[in-house]
Amino acid sequence: MKDSFGREIDYLRISVTDRCNLRCVYCMPEEGVEPISHADVLSYEETVRLVRIFAELGIKDVRLTGGEPLVRRGIESLVSEIKAMPGIETVSITTNGILLPEKLPALIEGGLDAVNISLDTLDAGKFDRITRRTGLPVVLEAIDLCLDAGLNTKINVVAMKGINDDEFVSLAELAKDRNLAVRFIEYMPIGRNDFEKYVPGQEIRGQLETVFGTMKTDTTLRGHGPAMYLRPEGFAGSIGFISAMTCAFCDKCNRVRLTADGFLKLCLQYDIGTSLRDVIRDGALDNEIKDVIMKAVEKKPKEHTFNDYLDAKNIEEKSMNKIGG
Question: Is domain 11-323 in CATH 3.20.20.70, yes or no?
Fold first, then answer.
């Protein structure tokens, strides 16, 4: 399946819930948000049907996100059903890790291939302040369990000026003796315009190379997204950079997103797309749903414009928990 710019769309990110057991400062307010009603959220049956249709259109890789995907009951069965689907090559999850130790065995049994664990600090007090909850030891345990199980494991660090910019070296060192990737993500003003927290990826790289020396390109396949991976000398793992603010990678974008309420979202920055939930619940046949998807994908924007955020049109105003990480 190609968009109007000839990009092959083979990666689908599915938010299975907007609910979360943390309250990260860059994702939602401390008091939480009004959750989507149960009736408006896609059922697993609807999700599986849509994934099957997407697979027939060329989607190969599926990532389950939230909110926090592990808070939704039965997520293990959903992983199993998707992984068994013809055409689907990998199923992965993005999680905060809090529930991972208890759910990991069943997820692996269901065929889970990879996991991204969000971790912005190694300081317990700072973790509590960023997430407005406790749980750093559990997240660190989850990382080790994933590695012990042989999962493709990545750590997602949202780089924030004045918050965790003093920890980039210590966070990177998680990959020194472990075969995982620590990925530094430039802070993006999704649903807000707080640019002052943003730290350029090149600045982070400079800090790391001052300590570790020049880092060479790591060609190990770590995932299907836009990260650039480097490896310091002597590291077992690698360091990734997702630099949406400073190094646009839109010409290689291969993804679309499905929100928890069934909205097919074409680009993280914009609110354009179409409701597949409404199409399904109106009784559409599979071929009719395919037609809706293909027509929507043709309207996928050429690129995001985070740096022109205030002047751009159709800007997404929902918080990340409503969109899907």
Answer: yes
